Amino acid sequence: MVYDSIQRNSKNRKILHLTILTIIAFTCFMFYLSIAGSFILSPFHEFTSSLPHSDINNISSIIFWNIRLPRGICCILIGGILGSVGTIYQNIFRNPLADPYILGVSSGSAVGISISFLASKYMIYHHTFLPLHSILFGCLTLGFVFLLSKKTQSITNLLLSGVVLASFQSAIFSILLILAGQDLGTIFRLMVGNISNCTWEHVYLLLGVSLLGMPIIYKYAYPLNLIAISDESAVNAGVNIRFVRNLLLITGTIMTAAAIGSVGILGFIGLVSPHITTKVLGPDAKLGSMGSFLVGGILLITADLGAIKLIPDMELPVGIITSLVGAPILLLLIKRTDHSSHHS
Questions:
Q1: What CATH number is attached to the domain comprising 41?
Q2: Going by C-beta distance under 8 Å and a sequence separation of 6 or more, which residues neighbour residue 85?
Q3: Can you list the positions of beta strands (E) in the chain?
C-alpha cells in the first residue's frame, strides 16, 4: 500500500511538471508572436480577425499569418523534434553526450541540401526540395551506417560507422562549398540555422513528420527503458533489441533530417533538452520524450527571439545563439550532476 501510494504520488508529480512545461511552452509561443519583429502585435486580435467578415488584408495580419505564426510554429516543432530525438538517442547509446547528429545525419543532410541548392540552377526548384533532399540523404547515411555495422550492430560499431561517414561526408560538403562559388554565403546561411525562411509548407512537413514519429517513440518507450539499462535486461523481458533500436534510429533520422532541411544545423538543442527534462521528469523515456519536445521548443523559440532582438536592425542566425547559450547551460548541468553525485 505504501509503495503504491509513493508510486502514484511520483506519477502525479511528473504529470504536474509536464503540465507546467506545456504552460511555459504556450506562454513563450504567445510572447514570441507578440514581439518577434519590429513592432508589437496582439495574437488574440489576429486570431479573432480571421473570423468571417473580418479584415485580414491589413499589414499586421499579413505579417502575423505569413511570417510570425509559421516561424513560431516551426520553432516549436524543430526544437521539439531535436529534443525528443536527443532523448531517444541518449537512451539507445547509453551516452549522455549523444545527440540527433551522432550518426552523421547532419553531414549527410548538409550534402543533400548543398546538392539540391546547386542543382536548382539547372532544374525546376521549390524551397521544400531542401528538406526532402535532406531526409533522403539523411536516410542514405543511416543506411550506410547499418551496412557498415551489419554483423553485430553493436553500439560501438554504430557509433564508429557514424563517425567515419560523417568525416567522409564533411569532405564532400567542403568540396561542394568550393564549387558553390558566389553561392557560398547562401549555403552557409542555410546550414548555420536560419529560421527566417520558414513558411507554411515547412510547418506542414514538420507537423507531418512529428505526428508520424512521436507515436512511434511513445509506443516503444518502455522497451527503450529496458535497452537503456542493458541489453541483457531487454532480452530477458522479451524485447527484440535490433528491431526496436533500428526502428527508433530510422524514425529519429527522418525527423532530424526534416528539421535540418528546414532551418539548417542547430547545435545543443538535442543535447541540452534531454538533460533538463531528466532533471524535471526523471529518466523515463516515455515522459522524457514528451518533456524534451516541450523543452526543445521552449529553448529554440527563446533562442530565435534572442537572434531577432539581440542586435538592433540585424538578425543573427539562430544556430549561433543556440551554440552560445547551449554550451554553458550544458556545462552547468554537468557540473551540478557531478556535485550531486559527490554528495550522494
A1: 1.10.3470.10
A2: 100, 252, 255, 256, 270
A3: none
